[in-house]
Design goal:
Blueprint lengths: L1 E9 L3 E9 L2 E7 L10 E10 L8 E3 L7 E17 L2 E8 L3 E10 L2 E6 L4
Antiparallel strand pairs: 1-2, 1-6, 2-3, 3-4, 4-9, 5-6, 6-7, 7-8, 8-9
Length: 121
């Protein structure tokens, strides 16, 4: 199983950074309202640059004048199992301290994706 982290990021605007350990890096999305905890709720997830794997434990303050300036704290972390991965769709099962369940990321356009929790099958 691979790791994931959700970092609460109090920058210009509060958002959550969702990161999946994949291809030797942390594939990353900014999720303004956080990942949904119940099925039926779709949230915007904007892809951002990949981060190095050692960023998975980062908590602290990014100083003013630097990209992403603000407070970063780990909101949830754990492991995930990749169910399927296509160019525009990733399906995975999260096992975190707060979030558990099957999720999907669907690419809509440009850097925009939708993330949602799938109903139990």
């Amino acid at each position: 199983m691979s790791r994931f982290v959700i970092q609460k990021h109090k920058a210009t605007h509060l958002h959550f950074d969702f990161r999946l350990e994949m291809d030797g890096v942390l594939k990353s999305w900014a999720v303004p309202k956080g990942l949904p905890e119940e099925p039926g709720i779709k949230r915007l997830a904007v892809s951002v640059e990949d981060h190095p794997l050692d960023y998975i434990d980062f908590e602290g303050v990014i100083p003013e004048g630097h990209y992403g300036a603000g407070v970063v704290e780990v909101w949830d972390k754990g492991e995930y199992e990749l169910e399927s991965r296509e160019k525009d769709k990733i399906v995975f099962h999260l096992t975190g301290k707060k979030l558990k369940g099957r999720y999907a990321l669907i690419h809509t356009n440009d850097k925009n994706w939708l993330i949602f929790k799938l109903k139990k099958s």
